[in-house]
Amino acid sequence: MKRHTIVRDISWLSFNGRVLQEAADPTVPLRERIRFLGIFSNNLDEFFRVRVATLKRMLELDKKVKMHLEESPAKIIDEIQMIVLRQQSEFNRIWENVLGELEKEKIFLVSEKGLNREQRVFVQRYFEEEVRSNTVPLMIESIQQFPILREKSIFLAVMLSKKDTAYDHKYALIEVPSKLMGRFVLLPSAPGEHTIILLEDVIRFNLPSIFSYFGYDKCESWIFKVTRDAEIDMDTDVADSITQKIEKGLKNRRKGKPVRLVYDKEIDPGLLEYLMRRMSITKKDNLIPGGRVHNFRHFMDFPDAVFPKAAQRRKPFQHPLLTYSRRVTDIVLEKDIMLNFPYHSFSPVIDLLREAAIDPDVLSIKITCYRLASNSKVINALLNAVRNGKQVTVMLELRARFDEEANLEWKERLEDDGVKVLIGLPDMKVHAKLCLIKKRVQNKTLLYGFVSTGNLNEKTARLYGDHCLLTANSAVMADVSRIFSFLEKPKGRLHSLRSCKTLIPCPTCLRVELIKMIDHEIKLAKNKKPASILLKMNSLSDEQLIEKLYEAAQEGVKLTMIVRGIFCMFSENKKWAEPVTAISIVDQYLEHARVFVFGNEGDEKIFISSADLMVRNLDHRVEATCPIFDENIKHIIKRMLDIQLSDNVKARTLDNDLRNEYVKKEGDKTVRSQIEIYNYLFSVKQQDQKANPTTSETLTEIPISLIN
Q1: Were both Cys, which of 53, 222, 420, 643 would link to 267 (CB 3.0–4.6 Å)?
Q2: Which of 251, 268, 302 is the last residue of a domain?
Q3: Is-catalytic flag, 298?
C-alpha cells in the first residue's frame, strides 16, 4: 500500500539531519559547529526516550496499533536504526573534521595518553583533590542485582586483567560525575595554546590508582550510555492527585526500560555481551556503536574561554513603540504591540508584569506557564504582585516533558507565597501561552495582557523565534478570560472554550475552523479566483489536515509552508494544479513561531498560534490561536514571512525523499533570513527614531557587520 504521508519519526530524523548539516557547514563558526553537534546528540537522546520507546510499547501491542500507523512499529524501528547508524557515521566524520579545525586554532582535546609531564602531574593531583571522592567503582560481577544506571549519565566499563594471561579478568563500572563537576578540564598549556581533557579521561588516567589493591596490572576501559523509556505512566488510582501521580511517574522513569545502548565500538566483545545480558538488552534493541566520546549534549557547553573573542552576538533591541519613557501598560492600553523574539527584547513582558504587581488599580493577574527559566523573572514579578495584595493565578503545566521536576518545585514555591496554582487537566496538557490582567479604574474594568506562540522564558526568548502580542483588545481578552474560566473549573465547562468569539481554542475549535478556511480557499480556486494558504509551524503531522491540504493543491490553491521540524506531507505531486512550496530553516535561532495566513479574496486573515498541526495539539491540548487585526502588525508579519521564503542560505527544500537539499540560489543575491529579519526590524526601529528623536536609545546595539 502506498503511503499517504511520510512516517512522523522518519521525518523527525530528517529534521535532526538538518541540525547535523549545520555542524558540517564550514561557514558556521567553530564554536557553533560544536554546539550543533551537542544539539543533535541531545535531540537524538530525547527521540529515543520518547518516540522509539513509544514504538516499542506499540510493538508489544502488536496488531492493535496497525489502525494508527500506515506501517508496523517493527518496520519503523528498523528504518530508524538504519538512518541513525548512517547519521552516526556522518557525526563521527564531522567530529574528526572539527577536531582538526580546533588544532588549527591551537585548541587541543587530548586523551589520557596524550599528556606531557606537567599535565600528568596536574591530572593526578586534580583527581585526588576533586574527582576521587565523587567516583564509586562498582565490581559488577559480585553484585547480584545489577544497578539501575542513570539515564543521562555516561559510564566507564572497565576490564581488569593480567598481562601474562587472558583468562583472569574482572569487570567494573564507574559513573562519570559530569553532572557534579562538568565534562571539561582545562590543562596547563603552552602560551597561545589551550588544552582540554574530558573528565572520563581524567578517571582513565587514574584507573591503576583506583584498582591497585586488586592485584591486576592492566586496566582497559570504554565509554557507554543507556537511553531509557521516558514516558511517565499516570496510574489510575483516584486517591492520588495529579501531583502525586507525576511524582510517582518521575521515580518510575528512572527505572524505565532500556531502549538504546550506545557504546565505544572498540569495547571488548565479552564485556559488551556481559553488559547486555545484565541489563536485559538484546540484539533486537537499538545498539549504536560509536566513537570514544559519548553524551555529546555536554558539548553545547564547550568552554568558550578557549576561543578567540567571538564576533559580537546580535543583541535583542527594544520595540520602537516601547523606547520612550512611558509605562508598557499605558502603551498597551492604547495600541496592540507585537514583540518578535529573539530580535525584540523580552523585557517588556517582564515590565508589564512588574508594573501590574505595583499598580494599585490592578486587581488580579492570571497566566499560563509551561517551561520557565531556572531563575525566572516572570515568577519573581508574580510573587511581588502577591505581596502587593493582587490575586495571582498561575496555570502551571506539570507534565511539560522533562520539566516536570522543575515545575513541581515552582508549584511549591508559588503556593508557599500565596499564589493560586492550577496544575492542569487530567486528560490534556495546557500549552496555550496567555496572560490576563484585570484593572479597575473609575468603576470601569479594563482587561489587558498577551497571547504568545512561545514559552514565558527570558532565556529561550533570546534563542527562539516567537511572536508575543501585547494587547488590550476587548474581544481577545474576553476570550482569554473564558479560557481561564475553563482552566479554573474544567468539569463540564467545555462550553467556555466553544463560546470564544475571537480566539480559536483547542481542543474544541481549531481543527474545524482550519478546515473551514481551507475549504473557502478551495472554493475560490474552483471559481478561478486567487486562492492562497501560507502556514508556518514547528510540525505538520495531522493526517486529516494533510489530506485537506492535498485537496487544496489539487484544486489550484497556492500552498506555501515553512516547517522547521516534522513534516509528514508529500510536497510533490505532478497531478496537482499548483506546485507546493515547502521549506525548513535551521540556523542560529530555533524557528518556533506558528503563523497561519489565508488569502480570503484579498482580505488576508492572519493568525498566531501556540499549536502545531498535530493530533496531540489539536485534540489533546488547550491551545490558543489569535487573529491579528492591526494592519501594521499584519504587514510586518507578512514581510518576515516573505524574507524567510526568500532564504537561500539556511533554507532546505522539504521534498518527498527527505534529501534536505538547500534551496537553490537564483542570481547573486544572498539571503540569510535571520540576519535579514534582524536588519528589517531594526530598520523599522530606526525609521521610528527618526520620526521621534526624543527616544533615548542609540544604534550602537546593532553589530557593524550587519549594517554593511
Answers
A1: 222
A2: 302
A3: no
